[in-house]
């Protein structure tokens, strides 16, 4: 029996290197190994962008362009848009009726963003309750696996709890999905914090080679290394963290030793890193330029994939209605 997987992303900004390493690279590999669903979580993007919804549609198209440029193939997996499938919202309503409030309040992402995202009012039900919508997004496709990063593990665990609670109350409808995790180092951003579009510290997949270098050369390093002649500690340098992800072992050893002995300057270290980033991401940038030139095709991929995904969503919602004794869907 073919394994079914599902994963998704919010179109809340441009995708960056962390998105690629944490999800996209893995999605591309998995689309050839399973029945794959990849969704654009545009309703979720409204939880932090509800004051200006116009940005979400633009981010949606740009994100799909990034996906295609990185190697997602609409012939291999189903690429679809959450808001085009109203069954997600209906299942969300059903789940919200029996999900205990403390399950949502203990969500670590909720607490983290409340503390770190400034300039936005996140004291809304949509932001507190989005893990319930996420559970509906997942379970409506009855996947066997939901590949996620470590930071999304609490959300998938809540999804499993909601599935168990539904099955206990109404009968077995939803399989309990596994959530295989690939441990990927959290990529530091330009300021040393975790790379995030929310923190405005990211290197984007849509950055040109020139833009990428402008960002790399301004990255913070070991703050104790004021002059080139000062020895440094690579273990506390964000640039070296990126070397450990993208550079080969020989280069990692060379720049680490050069930092400790002050035989290499920070700008030279950054140039070495940038060479590896160019090798990895410039082909993606070039492919992205080609895909972006035919936006009608991008939109057609979204529409076609959404129509296909909705067939499965309707089937599942009908099963849930039947289990709960609700009137049959027309």
Distance between the termini: 31 Å
Main sheet summary = 3 strands, parallel
Structural class: mainly alpha
Q: How many separate domains make up the residues?
A: 2
Mean pLDDT level: 93
The CATH first-level class of the largest domain comes to: Alpha Beta
> Per the principal axes of the C-alpha atoms, what is the gross shape?
elongated
Question: What fraction of the residues are assigned to beta strands by DSSP?
Answer: 5-15%
> Can you tell me the residue ranges where pLDDT is under 50 for at least 5 consecutive residues?
none
Number of helices: 14
Going across the major beta sheet, what is the strand order? 1-2-3
CATH architecture of the largest domain: 3-Layer(aba) Sandwich
Task: Determine the CATH topology of the largest domain.
Answer: Rossmann fold
Question: From N to C, what is the helix and strand string?
Answer: EHEHHEHHHHHHHHHHH
* CATH H-level superfamily of the largest domain: HUPs
Give a written overview of the molecule:
It is a single chain. This protein has 14 helices and three strands. The model has no long low-confidence stretch (mean pLDDT 93). The longest helix is centred in the last third of the chain and has 30 residues, at 295-324. Helices cover 55% and strands 5% of the residues. α3 packs across α13 (266-292), α4 (87-96) packs across α8 (130-139) and α4 (87-96) packs across α14 (295-324). The two termini are 31 Å apart. The protein has a three-stranded parallel sheet with strand order 1-2-3. The protein has two domains: 4-185 and 295-324, HUPs (Rossmann fold, 3-Layer(aba) Sandwich), CATH 3.40.50.620; 207-289, Tyrosyl-Transfer RNA Synthetase (Orthogonal Bundle), CATH 1.10.240. With 330 residues, the chain is mainly alpha-helical. The radius of gyration is 22 Å and the shape is elongated.
């Amino acid at each position: 029996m073919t394994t079914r997987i599902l994963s998704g992303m919010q179109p809340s900004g441009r995708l960056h290197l962390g998105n690629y390493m944490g999800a996209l690279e893995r999605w591309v590999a998995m689309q050839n190994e399973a029945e794959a669903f990849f969704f654009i979580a545009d309703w979720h993007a409204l939880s932090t962008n509800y004051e200006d919804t116009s940005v979400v549609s633009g981010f949606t198209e740009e994100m799909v362009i990034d996906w295609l440029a990185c190697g997602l193939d609409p012939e291999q997996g189903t690429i679809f848009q959450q808001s085009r499938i109203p069954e997600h919202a209906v299942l969300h309503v059903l789940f919200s009726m029996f999900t205990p409030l403390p399950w949502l309040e203990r969500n670590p992402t909720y607490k983290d963003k409340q503390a770190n995202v400034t300039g936005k009012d996140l004291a809304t039900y949509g932001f507190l309750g989005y893990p319930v919508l996420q559970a509906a997004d997942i379970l409506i496709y009855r996947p066997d696996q939901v590949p996620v990063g470590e930071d999304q593990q609490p959300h998938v665990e809540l999804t499993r709890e909601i599935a168990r609670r539904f099955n206990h109350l109404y009968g077995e409808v939803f399989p309990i999905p596994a959530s295989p995790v690939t441990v990927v180092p959290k990529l530091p951003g330009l300021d040393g914090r975790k790379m995030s579009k929310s923190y405005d510290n990211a290197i984007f997949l849509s950055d040109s080679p020139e833009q990428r270098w402008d960002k790399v050369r301004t990255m913070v390093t070991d703050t104790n290394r004021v002059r080139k002649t000062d020895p440094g500690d690579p273990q506390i340098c964000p640039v070296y963290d990126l070397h450990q992800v993208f550079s080969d072992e020989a280069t990692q050893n060379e720049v680490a030793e050069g930092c400790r002995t002050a035989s290499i300057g920070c700008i030279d270290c950054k140039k070495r890193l940038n060479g590896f980033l160019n090798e990895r991401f410039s082909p993606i940038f070039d492919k992205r330029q080609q895909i972006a030139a035919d936006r009608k095709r991008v939109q057609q991929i979204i529409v076609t994939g959404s129509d296909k995904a909705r067939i499965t969503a309707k089937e599942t919602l009908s099963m849930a209605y039947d289990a709960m004794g609700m009137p049959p869907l027309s």
